[in-house]
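We modelled the chain as a single entity of 223 amino acids. Its sequence is:
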Amino acid sequence: MVWKFALALATALAMLSSGIAQGNCTTLDLEYICQNTEYVQSVSAECGLACLSEGEECLEACMIEQLELSLPCIGCFGEQVVCVVQNCYFACAFGTEEACAECALANCEAGFNECAGIVDSDNDTWTNLCDCNDTNPLVYPGADGTNQGFDNDCNGLLSPDELTTCLADMNADQIIGTADLLIFLGTFDCSDDCLEEADFNEDGVVGASDLLIFLSEFGLYCF
């Protein structure tokens, strides 16, 4: 039975490879779990087995010796162990591996999420453990490039299919920023001898519609 509890813990943690938001876990905790998911799974399962009869303090001491996580974050794993023991004893002692894991996820995942701060703000199925921008559904690990200047796949690099050709890169430094805004504002409301590059919609006037185009590109990296 005890190994099934370990399996339930590891299965619940595996769900976190889709992410964590900040509760008791700090930004550094989340980055560490993302980068070392399999190792954290292994340690949590081993410590869960060793401490099933000892409680949260035992598990916290076991994990903190092996993982570079803050004590409050590790405390969430301790609460998860207690939850699995209290809610899934029969499923794990007498049921199948799948039943044990399903019970742990159904009864204990929400509590762990609340404790650690797990969210998926942009509803892209990746929470912010490994989602480098959890406010943009086009950005998550493995996402295809959208040629909008975003690091879509969260690998820290901008590939050719992630870069974009920007209308508003007025100083040609490959980023739409404050310098471009100052140049643009210097031509705003101009209808004669205007800076051609500022008339984005080519209607002969630098006006509100051009400003909207500029704002839609502000902050982008350009190809």
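As a brief sanity check on the tokenised model: The two ends are 57 Å apart (CA to CA). The CA atoms of residues 196 and 202 lie 8 Å apart.
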